[in-house]
Design goal:
Largest sheet: 11 strands, mixed
Strand content: 15-25%
Number of helices: 15
CATH superfamily of the domain at 48-321: Metal-dependent hydrolases
Number of strands: 19
Shape: globular
CATH topology of the domain at 48-321: TIM Barrel
Length: 463
């Protein structure tokens, strides 16, 4: 009997301990994660969030609005930072006339009317930079921006920033790599523009599977990102999202390829506005300790920003157009030990989490262990609200002991190869045939509306 009484308490103790053993074993078996957080450097209490437009036009290239009016419209829309990125024309101070590309202006005559370029006055530029009429919240002027490959038929465009390369350069169809390489050599950075214009995924019979059926496009862009660190991102939603609707699918396929190489291209949104009323349809919000060109470049390179758009045809349907305040992120917390990512935000109706192009969860907090089977090498989120959509940059995900396998990224040989050879050959010929070079310079550098007043002033005929 005594043994029985002794055994019963022991059995009860074991029964009580079994759940603890089970919990410990479960914890030991649960995957642990190393989460790459692009917002790790952000001080959410002290850093500012700055509404930014990095891709827009005036009648100095192919827009239908004068330069001064375009700047004023951005100012009235509450922008904190503006970079005017004309086609093949490097940006200058807002009180200066940029070196225009007359062929571009002539081709788009129905928009430009070849009108004299109208910059801001010196005084008005100073007022906008100082924040006059906005309580001292000035708008930062970003020069040295331009749209490269600006005149190619396929819209093989990309943005160049923080260097002077690209002035007068027409570009080559389907060749993003050459200007990326040359901008990098010049000390600048690039962003791929609206790739859907060139791939024409939206015109295919099966756009949702277009990039699986045509992996050359994924390889073409992934290779650029892996080989050229100065190419920092890709436009995934611009204008009204007609041609960029499936660019998010392309983006996810690119991430799968590049992350094993340690490369994360960031997601950008641009208005690509050409006319009044178009400049508030997509933009970026940059998180920075100060509002300076250097801080903006760091944010663009490190991914401390969000992409925002009024349209979200892939996520919310073709008829959706945001009105009012878009979603706004207040804080992002990554708990490495718990394996969670939490987004604190306002003005949103839903938060959706994506990995490898598939929706894996919804809600403000993502616990990776709950969705491990669906998670690849990254997760990203988007917030949808009445005012539009906000894209959060990808968080890389690496499990304990995991080594990501690098997929081969073959070089793509397409029409750009012979076209680039022809272009380089023509440049070589012009070096040794000055008359041809002079004719080309006249066609691409002399803009009557811009240069005749300069010429007249130079020779003393202007009072």
């Amino acid at each position: 009997m005594k043994r029985r009484h002794t055994l019963i308490p022991l059995l009860l103790s074991l029964c009580l301990l079994l759940p603890c053993f089970a919990l410990g074993a479960s914890a030991a078996l649960a995957p642990t994660y190393q989460i790459g957080n692009p917002y790790a450097s952000v001080n959410w209490e002290t850093w500012g969030q700055y509404k930014t437009q990095l891709h827009c036009h005036t009648d100095a290239s192919d827009g239908g609005i004068p330069m001064n009016e375009q700047i004023e419209e951005h100012y009235s829309l509450g922008y904190d930072i503006l970079a005017i990125s004309e086609h093949m024309s490097v940006g200058v101070q807002w009180n200066q006339i940029p070196r225009t590309m007359p062929l571009m202006r002539l081709v788009k005559y129905e928009r430009t009317r070849m009108a004299p370029v109208a910059p801001l006055t010196d005084q008005r530029r100073e007022e906008i930079i100082a924040g006059v009429g906005r309580g001292g919240r000035g708008m930062l002027e970003i020069t040295q921006a331009n749209e490269l490959n600006g005149a190619v038929p396929s819209n093989t465009h990309l943005q160049g920033y923080f260097c002077d390369f690209g002035q007068g350069k027409i570009g080559v169809d389907y060749d993003w790599e050459t200007p990326v390489k040359k901008v990098q050599a010049a000390g600048g950075i690039t962003v791929i523009d609206h790739p859907g214009f060139a791939t024409k995924a939206d015109k295919s019979d099966d756009p949702m599977n277009f990039y699986d059926d045509n992996p050359k496009w994924v390889n073409k862009f992934a290779r650029i990102f892996v080989e050229y660190p100065s190419c920092v991102g890709i436009d995934i939603n611009s204008m009204v999202d007609d041609h960029t609707k499936y660019d998010r699918i392309l983006y996810d396929r690119i991430l799968v390829k590049t992350i094993p190489y340690g490369v994360v291209p960031w997601a950008y949104c641009f208005s690509d506005g050409h006319f009044s009323g178009q400049f508030d349809r997509a933009w970026t919000v940059h998180l920075m300790p100060e509002k300076t060109p250097a801080a903006l470049r760091t944010s663009m390179e490190d991914g401390t920003f969000f992409g925002v758009a009024r349209c979200a045809k892939l996520e919310a349907g073709d008829d959706f157009y945001g009105e009012g305040d878009p979603p706004s992120v207040k804080k992002i917390k990554v708990d490495q030990k718990a394996g969670t990512i939490t987004i604190t935000a306002s003005k949103y109706d839903s938060i959706t989490w994506v990995s490898d192009g598939e929706i894996i969860a919804t809600g403000k907090t993502l616990r990776l262990a709950d969705h491990d089977a669906k998670i690849g090498s990254y997760v990203r989120a988007y917030l949808l609200g009445k005012g539009g959509i906000l894209y959060v940059q990808p968080f890389t995900v690496l499990r304990a002991g995991q080594v990501l396998e690098k997929e081969d990224i073959p070089r793509v040989f397409d029409i750009s190869v012979p076209l680039r050879f022809m272009s380089d050959s023509m440049e070589f010929i012009m070096k040794f045939f000055p008359p041809l070079r002079w004719v080309w310079r006249l066609l691409t550098w002399f803009d009557p509306a811009v240069d005749m007043p300069r010429l007249m002033e130079l020779i003393g005929y202007v009072a």
